[in-house]
Specification:
α2 runs parallel beside α3 and α6 crosses α7. The protein is elongated, with a radius of gyration of 27 Å. The chain has 391 residues and is of the alpha+beta class. The longest helix has 22 residues. β18 and β19 form a beta hairpin. The protein has three domains: 75 residues, Beta Barrel (OB fold (Dihydrolipoamide Acetyltransferase, E2P)); 68 residues, Dihydrolipoamide Transferase (Irregular), CATH 4.10.320.10; 221 residues, Chloramphenicol Acetyltransferase, CATH 3.30.559.10. The strands form five sheets. Strands 9, 12, 15, 16, 17, 18 and 19 form a seven-stranded mixed sheet that branches. A four-stranded antiparallel sheet has the order 1-8-6-3, with no helix packed on it. The chain is 30% helix and 25% strand. It starts with a strand and ends in a 5-residue tail after the last helix.
Length: 391
């Protein structure tokens, strides 16, 4: 039997609230299927399952607050459907006249039906906000319970746009700010930071981007962010101690998963993950960014989008501050910062010229690495950016 656990979506997460099960006992699941929706400080997150089998038992009730690591469900890996016992309420024997029995039982059933409408907590909230009568909806969930999808379908039939307070940005942004504050406070308390910076000439890289984009359709054109993520990922191959976490000692990571800081429109930040960035080319990274950034800003991320990052990149973009010194996101051991690019006078081969330049910074955990390692990493990063076609 496989135990499905409440996942951790960052060092700042201690618990989440189960809003709705998306699967029921007896359902077959495969890797990537959405099994539940959980409310965290980062919003309403779709939780994925990473095993294959048949749902055996759901151990947590909707609406419950669950600590990270708690067993939420049991999955039978064999693929065989588990036996489910039907719970039959005990009936009390009542002596009544045969002619009255059917009438009394019918009244009893009608009263019971009117008194108990099964619906998920999220479905109830959405129905109340949109003034939808739950008694008029046929549920499709376990034991005919009404789900969020049932409420959305009912509202769609009326031609109205669904509203849901779970997706309103202001409370979520406030919660995200609190989560970031907790993580950054932990970082400053526990991590001995060191900082390095290096000025990098981006003229060749930007020229390569321009030439490459000229050959691509508009929807597939590359942004500098894709090239920066790829160059960092490729550089980390030679510096595994920076692609690691600190948990009772240095824990090296096999995968290079880049956390990329996304600014939210209402304020605050969120850090989704580009998995196996070193194995992706720049076009694949750009495709991942085009998918994940809009969902991040709409607060519609999945658990895999927020998990397993091994290092973080923050970029201020063109026109931003010249230098950004990041704070390491625990339990990671490094963060890379890209300042805004600008045209500067640069001497190259004894000749003065105008070049596109920006400053790259590294904040490192001194328990994991030292300044020499960090300096060598920045030198390698520069080499990759001077040869963008090799990426």
């Amino acid at each position: 039997m496989i135990e499905f656990l409440m996942p951790s979506l960052g060092a700042d997460m201690e618990a989440g609230t189960l809003v709705e099960w998306r699967k029921k006992p007896g359902d077959t699941v495969k890797r990537g299927d959405i099994i539940a929706e959980v409310e965290t400080q980062k919003g309403l997150i779709e939780i994925e399952v990473f095993d294959e089998g048949v749902i055996g038992e759901l151990l947590i009730k909707e609406g419950a607050k669950i600590p990270v690591g708690t067993v939420m469900a049991l999955i039978n890996p064999s693929g065989a459907t588990l036996e489910r016992k039907e719970i039959t309420p005990e009936q009390t024997a009542i002596v009544i006249q045969p002619t009255e029995e059917k009438i009394i039982e019918k009244v009893r059933e009608e009263k019971l039906e009117a008194r108990t409408i099964k619906a998920s907590p999220l479905a109830k909230r959405m129905a109340a906000e949109n003034k939808i009568d739950l008694s008029q909806i046929q549920g499709t969930g376990e034991e005919d319970a009404i789900t969020k999808g049932d409420v959305e379908n009912a509202n769609a039939q009326k031609g109205k746009k669904i509203t849901n307070s779970e997706e309103k940005n202001i409370p979520q942004v406030q919660a995200i700010r609190s989560a970031v504050a907790a993580a950054m406070s932990k970082s400053n308390r526990e991590i001995p930071h060191y900082y390095l910076e290096k000025r990098i000439d981006m003229t060749k890289a930007l020229a390569w981007l321009g030439e490459t984009n000229h050959k691509l359709p508009i929807q597939k054109r590359l942004l500098p962010a894709a090239l920066l993520i790829k160059s960092v990922a490729q550089s980390l191959v030679d510096f595994p101690n920076l692609n690691a976490t600190w948990d009772n000692g240095l824990q090296l990571k096999k995968e290079i998963n880049i956390g990329f800081v996304v600014s939210l429109r209402g304020g605050g930040i969120i850090i989704p993950t580009i998995h196996n960035a070193n194995l992706k080319n720049t076009s694949e990274i750009m495709e991942a960014l085009n998918d994940i950034i809009p969902r991040a800003r709409a607060m519609k991320l999945r658990s895999s989008d927020l998990s397993d990052s091994t290092i973080t990149i923050t970029s201020l973009g063109e026109g931003g501050a010249d230098v950004v010194f990041g704070v390491i996101y625990p339990p990671q051991v490094a963060i890379i910062g890209f300042g805004g690019s600008s045209q500067q006078a640069v001497v190259e081969n004894g000749m003065l010229g105008i070049r596109h330049v920006f400053t790259v910074t590294l904040a490192g955990d001194h328990r994991a690495t030292d300044g020499l390692t960090g300096s060598d990493f920045l030198v390698t990063l520069n080499k990759h950016l001077q040869n963008p076609e090799s990426l």
